## 1
Amino acid sequence: MLLSPALAISAVLFTLGVAGVLFRRNAIVIFMCVELMLNAVNLTFVALAQELGVGGQVFVFFVMAVAAAEAAVGLAIILAVYRHKHSVSLQNMNLLKDG
Amino acid sequence: MILTFFWIFGVIAMGSALLCITRKNPVASALWLVVTLFALAAMFVLLDAQFLAVLQVLVYAGAIMVLFLFVIMLLNLGRPGPSDIKGPVGLLIAVVLAGALLLQLRPLSDAKLPEAVRLPPGTVAALQQQQGMVGSVAGPLFEAYLVPFEIASVLLLAAIVGAVVLAKRKL
């Protein structure tokens, strides 16, 4: 009964996360948008778990574990880059650009 | 009734997600994301995943978002400054691409699951009544998904070591 609204809301949340990644420049905000996308996928897993069995809820555990690991490593990388560049704006991270 | 509540929380989640990606201040963005995560936790409860709702509040809203806020405060990014949102061209491209993605994802919610794979309604809720909220998820986690569970522990260890190596100035 809740499957179709859950999938619709999840699609909107995922799209908002993608839009945020595309139009922000602050690395930390982009990182939060990635978390938003992961949560949209979690909502899909939980909604489908109600119809297809509890295995989907187990996958949400793994997504949360990976998200926690990703947050720890990603924020450490952002800290290291900030120490080097004194900025978290992706505009200043153009080492691979020509010129 | 449940459907009404589900849509209320869904609208809260979508609205605060929109505010999260459009606020200039990273601290405001993070706090709106916390609102989204709480709304998602409420939706998990309505979808018969009470234990995951607790984990969502504890792990996501509690631990991960505190880590984000901690780093924002540590780098002193909360002060007002120039906006990091891209100019009109970048914004237009982002909206067009995101709109195309939404047009592709939206029809999925109208799809019908084949009856052969679908459980009768209330199966998951009955299983939870029988085995308990935690037990119904812990059973498959430690039986069918035991190897992925062990690999996840290795991943977390690698993440801890990696974070220390990256964040420390001198080892």
Note: Chain B touches chain A through 85 residues (CB under 8 Å).
## 2
Amino acid sequence: MDADEEDRRWRKAYAVVLLALAVTVAALTALSKVAW
Amino acid sequence: MSGVDWLVLFGTLGAIVAYGTYKTRGIKSVGTYLRGGEDSRWYTVGLSIMATQASAITFLSTPGQGFEDGLGFVQFYFGVPIAMVILSATIVPIYYRTRVLTAYEYLEQRFDLKTRQLTAAIFLLQRGLGTGISIYAPAIVLSAVLGWPTPVTTVAIGLIVIAYTVSGGTRAVNQTQQLQMAVMLSGMALAVAVIIRQLPVSLGEAVAVAGVMGKLKAVDYSLRPDTRYTFWSGITGGTFVALAYFGTDQSQVQRYLSGESLAQTRLGMLMNGLLKVPMQLLILSVGVFVFVFFQFNPSPVFWNRAALERARPAIAPLEQRHEELFAEKQQLLGRWRAGEPVQAELAAVEAKDRDVRAEARKAVAKADPLANTKDSDYVFLTFVMTRFPAGLVGLLLAVILCAAMSATASAMNALGTTTMVDFYKRSLNPKVDNDRALRLTRWFTAGWGLVAIGFALVASRLDNLIQAVNILGSIFYGPMLGVFLVGFFTKRVRGTAVFVAVLAAQALVIAVFAASDIGFLWYNVIGCAAVVAIALAWTALRPGSLPAQ
């Protein structure tokens, strides 16, 4: 695997972590807005 | 506590220590002792990073936070995944490329010796005292709830950690932390299950009760400066603190430098980024469910029982008021479950109850000025001791002690390493041979362990000292991050500029601390920004300090 390909794979891994954070924040925001 | 609990507690702790010692027996090379053999897989790195950050007070205070304020505290951890990505992409590859043993060693390669040893000395001071607190803080709670004398708990935790950290070094710390983390996570998951089983209502109703009482407001987008945990402070301040802690604190840096390769280390860090927020949510939800439980069962007006007893005559009317409000809440919850819209009334009664509990804290503080009035720290352990089945009580105590040991072990390991690498080997005896270096690093590690135990023992008599140590941490973290940022992201700034900048920024932060009421979190930002600004300004104004072209 060349360096560019490896960089691309790491960037994808970083995106996954940040996406997981975004999804968690969105879910928690929705939970915060529920009128119980 | 039953015999089964003692068996589970000592069996778990004994097995972990024995495993760590066995797996690291016969270490002959100082390199292996300091870097852990550089053969850790990503999951070992990830679990080790998580275990280092999880101190005992995490498992005592965080459920208490959930109990008092709901899920909002989770926002503080939103910065961790962001920091993990930034560090994996920037700082960690530099540490790997430069083959350093400590974070401060990099600073000599980038700047000069004085900058390296100044930052290393700051780390030793701050972490040396902080480690005492990480032993002392759980000891006071455990002694209050279990009746164990505080010095016994303090010395026992300290000596066990010294034993395996001194014997096996970095690898022993990493190996034991894997198991400690497994105990912590499974213990907390079991705790959630047990609490849910004890609830007098269904899970769905419990969640709804938590929602009605405002405990599920996890994200707050308001910009009010008086609200400590908001989305914005988490994303900015939280990222900042996480960058400083994970990027420059040797107790963390040493964990991920033990990775088999840069790729394994990065994966371990991203694992921490993925799991940290869910883990904190799990621990906070324990507190939220305990809160729901006590909407249907009577609770004390103040959770530190020993301190409550000492304030008894003054606190009696408050106890009575608390019971009346509980009865009112019961009635309203009954009506709410029958479909009546009484949410506003429930919130009003809850607010009154919070006022009564605040009054109780004042009464306790008046009766005993040295009492720990942050009684939410006692909620979870009290619940465990009084409501959990035999066996699980021992497991949950093992969780708390595992956390105390894992955080302490990383710190002792890092303190011993920094003393050897950044001071002894660098300045006193550069030609030290392998055997002597190994022997001395063990002595340094043990020495720092004893300093931590000693500090923990006197901390009980110097209550304000704990506060001072916490402030000390915030005062030093900002400039420390500033030095590394200047190192990583500028090319022109040299050693003297950054050295002067650290001293000036440190003086500025201390002045801000002495002369203003700005919250601790901001010291990090001010200190870091000051180092960067002063170092850049010094370089611009003194072109003579630039290297020859």
Note: Chain B has 22 helices and no strands.
